[in-house]
Amino acid sequence: MNKSEIAAVLNEIGTLMELKGENPFKIRAYVAGARVIEALGEDEIMQRVKAGTLEEVKGIGEALAQKITELHTTGRLEFFEKLQSSIPAGLVELLQIPGVGPKKIRALNDKLGIDSIAKLQEAALAGKIADLEGFGEKSQEKILEGIRNREKYGRRHLWIDAWETAEPLLAGLRKLPQVTRAEHAGSLRRRMETVGDLDFLVATNEPKVVADWFVHWPDVKEVTAHGETKASVRLSSGIQADLRLVPAEQFVFALHHFTGSKDHNVQMRQRALAQGLSMSEWGLVPAEGEGTAKQKAEERGRRTEIETEEQLFKKLGLNFIPPELREGLGEIDAAESGGLPRLVEASDIRGVFHNHTTASDGHNTLEEMTAAAEALGFEYFGIADHSKSSVQARGLDEVRLAEQVAAIKVLNASGKYKTFIFTGTECDILPDGRLDFSDEVLATLDYTVVSVHSSFKQSTEDMTRRIIRAIENPHTTMLGHLTGRLLLQREGYTVEVEKIIDAAIANQVIIELNASPWRLDMDWRHWRKAAARGLLCSINPDAHDTEGLEHFRTGIGAARKGWLTKEAILTTRSLAEVKKWLKGRKRHA
Residue 301, Cβ neighbours under 10 Å: how many? Predict the structure, then answer.
């Protein structure tokens, strides 16, 4: 196991021990041990495990050193496995409900016998939880809200989770000798932020062989349909996957049909009809005459000259519309008039901002994050650890921030890495709109991301005023995760987005597209209009570990859905250009 995986196990041990009501000192030892491990370099951990010197590290005792060694060398921990099996699954499941931590779960179990989400909901609806000491009406309502959100989002999946599930399956389909073409379609191909199910499309003359292979995919837990033109399965993650099998001559029409949103497809069919054509998943044929569109397509499909989506759009007098834009939101008119943008691509990104280290709630050190940024080919990246009011994230105070700034300057000057590190902070926007650090402190940094991390229940008007006041601070460079939403977990706080965009443009402040797969905030639906008015974007991964830096790619998908070009994004610029832009902002301050 690497250090992040070891730290995750130690943290989970602490949580499970708390569920069991174990000694608080033991619990803290595991949680503290996780932080110590995260702060060490991978090489140092490896060397100390080999030399048996983990106990020399402050915060790691003999018992903990033995467990870390077992995890590092075997990838397993017998103690952890026994602990997991000793706790009812229903109690662990309760941790999925926001506001229900280990201590509260133990109290609910002891006093009301609650050991499942169903029993938790029943007790909350009956008003029993509000009467318990340490809970109250607000806690009860928060629990019910959490349960409602879980039910609401239970059938959807984050885009990145769906993608990671779909890619190996698609690769397997493409390797089959009976398959001539294979793609995924639907909301996954359109890069929607969440996905309901997976759609796979295959061109083949031997559909039965392919369908049989599909339903026997190792990850399949349930087969819900198994025919020669369609098969459906439910995978271990709970997501449904549908496979459609078509002859090669129908593939491009089916791919377009099963990719576009309902509105896009309706508009495309209307356009085809205006040109005397009938468009469907089976083909594009003359609208007049006898027979259904399917029959016509089957009759003439083998003679069609359309083999690609580019040719299909061209046949209807349109430039190619990228899958991300097929939402029925003006893309067809733009494709007709030549107004489609050249969308940003992953290869356009030169660096990223808003990243965390072990100094706050990140899982990798400054040097490890820098090395990972260099490995991705970034010219630059920006550190933005939390500020002091984010106590839960071990936010930095003024002294620790100054120490980090000094360390970054030393690292830049050393020439050890090709990637340049910008000094920064993710500075809390306090409830009244003031920033968590003084202007004098912020002036020492290269850039400042300002974000809301508290008082989410403020009114729309108060939250909007709060954020605008922060934007108007001359040291603010970027606004972080505009609404604070966590996809499939919680709705964002309510704000007047247009007013905030107005303030950002007026004050030359960037609004980030937070590329974390759990956020993708500001939402893609706002970007097209905002960018047209001059709002500058920064695609920021909000990385809390080295792997998180890769999430900029998820942000690219959201940016493309928002019609963004490389010119609208700061992080497509070179290091010299970014330095110049930030220096200009400093003069503005």
Answer: 21
Asked whether residue 494 falls in the same domain as residue 523, the answer is yes
For residue range 184-226, what is the model confidence (pLDDT) as tens digits?
999 999 999 999 999 999 999 999 999 999 999 999 998 989 9
Distance (Å, rounded) from C-alpha 452 to C-alpha 577?
29
DSSP result, 8-65: HHHHHHHHHHHHHT--HHHHHHHHHHHHHHHHS-HHHHHHHHHHT-GGGSTT--HHHH
- HSE-CB of 252 using CA atoms within 13 angstroms: 18
Task: Choose one of 246, 275, 309: the last residue of a domain.
Answer: 246
206 contacts 248 by C-beta, under 8 angstroms: no
- Domain stops at, among 153, 175, 195: 153
What is the C-alpha separation between 363 and 36, in angstroms, rounded?
10
Please classify residue 269 by burial: count the beta carbons closer than 10 Å to its beta carbon, then call 0-12 exposed, 13-18 middle and 19+ buried.
middle
Domain with 67 in it: 3-153
- What are the Cα distances from residue 8, in Å, to 12, 13, 53, 266? 6, 9, 21, 48
Q: CATH code at 74?
A: 1.10.150.110
pLDDT digits 0-9 by tens, 414-449: 999 999 999 999 999 999 999 999 999 999 999 999
The owner of tokens 């779909």 is: 166
Determine, yes or no, domain membership for 564: yes
Specify the 3-state DSSP secondary structure of 429.
strand
CA atoms within 13 A on the CB side of 301: 21
Q: Is 226 helix (H, G, I), strand (E, B) or coil?
A: strand
Q: With H, G, I as helix, E, B as strand and everything else as coil, classify residue 291.
A: coil
From 243, 315, 335, 310, select the one nearest 275 (Cα to Cα).
Answer: 315
Helix (H) / strand (E) element for 298: namely helix 293-300
Q: Which two tokens stand for residue 203?
A: 């061109």
- Tell me: the pLDDT tens digits for 86-133? 998 888 889 888 778 898 999 999 999 999 999 999 999 999 999 898
In whole angstroms, what separates CA 253 from the centre of its chain?
31
Distance of CA 355 to the CA centre of its chain: 14
CB proximity list for 127: less than 8 A, separation 6 or greater:
140
Helix 3-20 × helix 62-74 angle, to 10°: 130
Q: In this structure, what CATH number is given to the domain that contains residue 333?
A: 3.30.210.10
251 in a structural domain: no
Residue 557's Cβ-side half-sphere holds a number of Cα atoms within 13 Å equal to: 22
Domain tally, the chain: 4
Strand ranges for 464-563 from DSSP E: 478-479, 510-514, 537-540
Alpha carbons 423 and 126: distance in angstroms, whole number: 52
